[in-house]
Design a protein that fits this description.
The complex is a heterodimer of chains A (104) and B (482).
Chain A lengths: L12 H10 L6 H22 L18 E2 L9 H6 L11 E4 L4
Chain B lengths: L6 E12 L36 E2 H13 L3 E2 L2 E2 L1 E5 L9 E5 L5 E2 L2 E4 L5 E12 L3 E3 L9 E5 L6 E7 L6 H18 L11 E11 L9 E6 L5 H17 L8 E5 L4 E4 L12 E2 L6 E2 L2 H8 L6 H12 L3 H7 L3 H14 L2 H19 L10 H12 L5 H14 L3 H8 L7 H14 L1 H8 L4 H13 L6 H13 L1
Parallel strand pairs in B: 14-15
Antiparallel strand pairs in B: 1-12, 1-13, 3-7, 4-18, 5-6, 5-17, 7-9, 8-9, 9-12, 10-11, 13-14, 15-16
The structure holds zinc ion.
Zinc ion binds next to loops of chain B.
Chain lengths: 104, 482
Amino acid sequence: MIASPAVAPTLTSADVERIAALAHLELTAEEKALFTRQLADILAYAEQVQAVDTSGVPATAHVLAERTEREDELQPSLPREEALANAPDPAPEAGLFRVPRVIT
Amino acid sequence: MNDRAQYEPVIGLEIHAQLRTRTKVFCGCGTAFGAPPNTQVCPVCLGLPGALPVLNRQAVDYAIKAAIALGCDVQPQSIFARKNYFYPDLPKGYQISQYERPLALGGGLEISAGGGKRVGLTRIHMEEDAGKSLHEGFPDSDRRTYLDYNRSGVPLIEIVTEPDLRSAAEASEFFARLRDILVWLGVNDGNMEEGSLRCDANVSVRPVGQRAFGTKTEVKNVNSFRYVQKALEYEIDRQIDLLERGGRVVQETRLWDSASGRTSSMRTKEEAHDYRYFPEPDLPPLMVDAGRLDAVRATMPELPEARRRRFVAAYGLPEYDAGVLTQSPALADYFERVAVAAGNPKAASNWVMGELLRVLNERGAGIEGVPLPPAALAGLIRLVDAGTVSSSIAKDVFARMYESGRSAEAIVAAEGLAQIDDETALLAIVRDVVAKHQDAVAQYRAGKQATFGFLVGQVMKGSGGKANPKLANQLLRRELGA
Ligand SMILES: [Zn+2]
C-alpha cells in the first residue's frame, strides 16, 4: 500500500456506498470511512502505474498468451449428492438447490 | 385506432444461440437437454472456489464458423470478461462473456422483406449460459426459488444486430434466415422451445422522417418461433398508442407472455445495471490466427443461398424447387445425388419434393435415416424416362422400394409392372374397351370429344395402369376412326 498518495483521492463516500450496494454489502459508518480511504489509496497507486509511458507497448490482458483449449470430450460430472452436499438449503429429493425466493 | 403509418419502428435483435457441443464451454460436463436436474454439474460450472475454466476448442470453432458464414471479421485476439451481477442462477456471481473485445465484428445478412435489404451485424461474442431458476411448483415456492445448474456453462454465441430492422415482419424474416444458417452450419439446433435459440429485441418507434431514435424497450422471453413477429407487433402498437395518447415510452425490459399475447413491464430495481466488466483473469486472450480461420473455413458447407442459386443455374430448377430442396444440407445432398445419378434434375426434384418428402412427413422421419439410397431413386427415374414404367405405376414402385429396399428394376421385373409397349397386347385391350362401351363410342363419334378421355381411362384401367399412354391413345383413335 502506498502511504502517501501522489494525487488527491477522487473517491467519495457515495462511491463506496454504491460499490457496497453492487456487492450486496452493508457497511457501518466506520467501515465506509475506512474503505473510502483504503480504496482511494489503491486508486492512487493505480494512477501512479498509469503514469508510466506505455506508448508502443501492446496492451496485455493476461500473462499467458498461448492457446489453452480442451477437446470437446465428456468428463464425469459430480454425483448429485456431492454437488448438493455443501449447499446451505438443498432439496435432495428434487435434486435441486434452493435459495430464498427471487422476484423476477 | 391511431395512424400507424405515421410511425416508423426501429428494431435491433440480440440472439443467443447454443453451440452444439457435447460438453460445456469451460468444463467437461455434458449439455444434453432434459437430463435430471443437477446431474451435469462440476466444480467449474457450479462456481466452486478454486475451480478453473478451460475453453472448449469445438465451441470456439463453431463460433468462428457462424461468424464466417455471416460475413463478420473474426478478430485475431478477443478477450473474455467477467460480467458481474447477483442472481442465483449464476453461481460464480459473474458470467464469463466477452465485452470490449468480442470474437467477431461486423457482418450482415440479406432479407427480402421491406423491398430487400442487408441487415448489419454489430458483433458476435462467446459467453456461457446461466442455470435455470424454478420459481413455481413447489410447496414453498412463495418463499423459495429452486435451481438446476445443468445449463450453467453451456456455450452460447450472442449475435447483435444493428438497429436496421424497420418492421416486425423484417425482424421475423431476419431471425428465420439467421436460424436457417445456424442450423445449416450445424452449430445450433434451432430449437427455441428447448431454449437453445433465443431472441431478444430492442424496439422503438419514431415519427416518419425523424432521424433520432425514440426511447427503446427490450422485449424478452419470446420462446417460440411463431411468436417473434406477434410480440414485436404488439410492442410496436403499444408504443405508438402510448405516444398518440400523449404519453412517453419508458426505457425498460418487457416480458412477452404468449398466453395473453402481450408484453408487460418486468419490475426492475431502481439502480441501473452496472456489470463492472473486467478481463477474466482465469482465461488467456483467445487468439485466432489465419491458419485456424482457414481450417474452419474448410469445414463449411456451401451456404443455403449459394446452393439455391447453384441449383437454379446448374440444374435449371425453378426457384421454388431450389428453395424447398435447400432446407437442410442433408436434403440438398440427397437431391443432388439423385439428380446426378438419374441425369434428370427436374424429375429428381419432383420425386424428392413430392413422394419422398410426403412419405417422410407422414412418418415424421428425417432425410438422414431414409432407407432409400439416392442411387435407387435414380434407378426408378431412369425406368420412367426409358418408358419402362408409367409414371402412375412408378409411384407404386416407389412405395415398394421404400418398404423393401429392393431396386426399382427388381420390383418391376418381379411384379410384372413394366409398361405395355407391345402393340398387339394393347390393341386387344383397346378393342375390348370399344366393345364394352358402345354408348361412349357412339357419343364420341357423334362429336363429344370429352368421351375420349373416359375411353383412354378405361384402357389404362384394363391394363392395370401399365399401358404406354401414348400408344394407347394412338390405338384408340385408330379404332374409333375405323
Ligand atoms: Zn461442469
